[in-house]
Amino acid sequence: MGRSFFVSIALVVTITLVMGVIFVNGWTDAPNAIATAVSTRVLRPNIAIGMAVVMNFLGALVMTIFNAQVAETISNIVRFEGESAQVALASALFSIVVWSVAAWYFGIPTSESHALIAGLTGSAMALGGLEAVNGGEWSKVLIGLVVSTIMGFGGGYLITKLLVILFKSTPRKKANKFFTVGQAIAAGANAFLHGAQDGQKFMGVFMLGLFYNDLAEKTGNGFVIPIWVMVLCSLTMGFGTSVGGMKIIKSVGMDMVKLEKYQGFSADVSAAICLFLSSIFGVPVSTTHTKTTAIMGVGASRRLSSVDWRIVKEMLFAWVMTFPGCGLIAFIMAKLFIAVF
Predict the structure, then answer these.
(1) Dihedral sign computed on CA atoms, order 209, 214, 215, 218
(2) Which residues neighbour 80 within 8 Å (Cβ) at sequence distance 6 or greater?
(3) What is the C-alpha separation between 339 and 322, in angstroms, rounded?
(4) pLDDT tens-digit profile of 21-80?
């Protein structure tokens, strides 16, 4: 059997793994979008998950049709060159699945976005060293990391303070009615924008898999993503979300900070603004990172002791370890797969 046979097998494995990663993303990452609405009892878990399924699907589909800059950034972040490009890409995706499932098992809301970038970078470096990394596109990741932290935490803090002033004289019952409706809408927006951000990231990887098997062409800065790819990826993410994710909802929305309705509304609005602007400008950010920093900001606006910093430390450790951890797994798996195939 020739090398082309193994490359074709690698394509099948790559597409299967992309679908697996999208499914896992919907399963473990999408619940962050609805965690606060569940914790404040604005939405029952089954209704919230149902809404997230629909909005994740629409976000991934609609935003990609009108603005696919996030997908372009991901597809250009590294260069897989040579005959082993398809094999290296497959190993990157394998490392992401391993890392994400392990994080879900321990109930830690680690970021599949960071895992995706780390996996791609580790595999590309195994193939071509540092020269395989596109520094200009990678800088957007660092910008997104800083911006999502500042906007998430700062937005959560400031919006909460502002609402306290604006609703100071409003009867609690009347205010809660407003925040109940507002948070339900904001949670839907978060789910939509999660699909817009994370759905596009994995569509970019899907197109790379087709490209390395001569089934897609790059035009300018990225790919023209076919509608069938958009629909397939969107449906897979929605299906993953339908599986559930109460472990993540509990860690993010219930354990880290005890939230009232106006605070949950503040966190959701802050995260939605950050995710929307990042998607428009093509900056890949972690939806998990954005949402959890917004919740931290909301908690800190009341008093620092309102935040369970033990949970925060666990999350920070998971975020910090994702880049070297997942990147190293991808590097080792790429070297192993290339040697075998």
Answers:
(1) positive
(2) 86, 88, 89, 123, 124, 127, 128, 132, 208, 212
(3) 25
(4) 888 777 766 667 777 788 788 888 778 878 888 888 888 888 888 877 787 788 788 888
